[in-house]
Amino acid sequence: MAQPRDYITMQALARIEYKLDLIMANLGVAQAAPPEEPWLAGVRSEIRSGRKIQAIKLYREHTGLGLKEAKDAVERMEKGY
Length: 81
Description:
Elements: H1 4-27, H2 38-48, H3 52-63, H4 67-79
Helix pairs in contact: 2-3, 3-4
């Protein structure tokens, strides 16, 4: 189980990654796809099955992001980003 400090660090990293994704998208910079985390396959499966709310919940659970940030990330995944 993650310690509280680890959880805060994961939240901070998730927010930084989210912001970098936005910056890169606005600049039109493509990024090489890193190896996908296993839980992301679950998020993608929920999206494909039409269970967007479940996908958002799963994304939040693993990243610690807020509702809006997780929703935005899942919607970008839906669009293929």
